[in-house]
Amino acid sequence: MLDLDGTLVDSVGPLCKWAQRLCAEYGLPAGTAEWVIEQRDSYATWQTFVGAAAEYVGRPEKSAEWRDHLVRNYPHEFTLAPDTAERLTSLRAAGWKLAIVTNGSIGMQTAKIDQVGLHDYVDAICISEAEGVRKPDRAIFERAAGRLGVELGSHGWMVGDTLRADVEGGISAGVRTIWLSSDAQEPSGAAASSVTGGGLGEGLEPRPEHVCGSIVAALDHILTSA
Ligand SMILES: [Mg+2]
Question: Are strands 210-212 and 193-194 parallel, antiparallel or unpaired?
Fold first, then answer.
């Protein structure tokens, strides 16, 4: 089971590109795009986020228009890295069943998945708004497993970049977990840091089984795991 944003695909770069485009089109002051990136996790919905951005630049009347601009343009900035696509193909060839398990709205998450063609690389997709339940609730992982025709258990994995949603959620679902962290060291593309062996994952709560610096390293770790 694989998280989408910040895991299978980068979502910060696309948000930055969208913000720069908005700034160029509306002549917004320097620093607006930086504010957007810094504040990206501070709001519960795109509506409140874009509303706050419009307030920040003193154009609150543009809130609805800029939200539409974001919905229309932001998903189109997403890309799927070729080496990620290659690993997903290898995993399925090795017999793994893959599901995307993502928190977010149906419209936005579907638009991103469509943009990068991830339908072709996974066996199931669970979007929290469609399922009526969000990570870390075990129920969304049960839905994913059900759609894959598998049981939850320690033969399975959850990979994601958010400790609470992905790692705590994966642990509650009884699967092994990999936390993606940009702080993880990857000498010559080495696979994963073992948390039980100490090091990077030491002291983390919840505690992932492994910490990887990239999705490619995480998928390689699963490919080579027993
Ligand atoms: Mg994420």
Answer: antiparallel
Whether 204 and 140 map to the same domain: the answer is yes
Give the integer Cα–Cα distance in Å for 55 and 62: 9
Check residues 204 and 102 and name the one with the higher pLDDT.
Answer: 102
Vertex 84, ends 83 and 90: CA angle to 5°? 90
Residue 130 has pLDDT above 60, yes or no: yes
Check residue 44 and give its pLDDT: 87
Ligand 1 geometric centre to CA of 19 (Å): 20
Report, as an integer, the average pLDDT of 208-214.
Answer: 96
Question: For residue range 40-72, what is the model confidence (pLDDT) as tens digits?
Answer: 889 988 999 999 999 999 999 999 999 999 999
Same domain as 202, residue 92: yes
Evaluate whether residue 7 is within a structural domain.
Answer: no
Structural domain boundaries enclosing 88: 82-223
91 and 67 in a common domain: no
Q: Report the Cα 170 to chain-centroid distance in Å.
A: 14
Spell out which residues have Cβ within 5 A of ligand 1, the ion. Answer: 3, 5-6, 161-162
What is the rounded distance in angstroms from the CA atom of residue 219 to the CA atom of residue 191? 9
Q: Does a structural domain hold residue 5?
A: no
Cα–ligand 1 centroid distance for 165 (angstroms): 8
Count the domains in the chain: 2
